[in-house]
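[step 3/7] fold_predict: job queued, chain A
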Amino acid sequence: MTILDRFEAAFAACPLVAILRGLTPDEAPAIGEALVGAGFTLIEVPLNSPDPLQSIAVLAEHLSGRALVGAGTVLTARQIGDVAAAGGALVVSPNADPAVIGATVTAGLASLPGYQTPTEAFTALAAGATALKLFPADVATPLALKAHRAILPPDTRVLAVGGVVPETIASWRQAGAVGFGLGSNLYRPGKPAADVARDAAAYVTAFQRAA
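[step 4/7] structure written:
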């Protein structure tokens, strides 16, 4: 099974991406277990976290066969090789850089670039993006996504990322979001694993109810 096949299976199981900005390698196993226990199958460690490649490696090994792990805030094509070497399968960016997307596709990893405008969305799709990340979603609004969906190819997968809470998932789903990236409302440095598990379960429940 290729990495992209594994991504498709993980996305189908639960299209919620846990964004673990600030995670340390020591925290990684407990936080990973908390997320997987709640039903998460996609985890992102932003590269501006402490020792992010080590955290990715720890999570990828610890959660092998249970969740797909990757890197966020990937800004240059040069970083793709390091992510792949650490066991990362996802490459998530805040922007739609064709060079980063192309390098991700060449490496056989899943590409989830960020966009705000239709121009950026079509640029990312032309470069081979696996799915799109509407970011920051809290300034775009569900109405903006609804307008984007009217012109994007019907099979385009858009995840809303930024400021999403369980109470707003239904409105985003109605606007056309098929998944979500969840950051500081789910995890922040030092947050106990038990609290992460509780909040992760709340997101999964909200998503299921909105389906």
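[step 5/7] annotate
The mean pLDDT is 98.
The two ends are 28 Å apart (CA to CA).
exit 0
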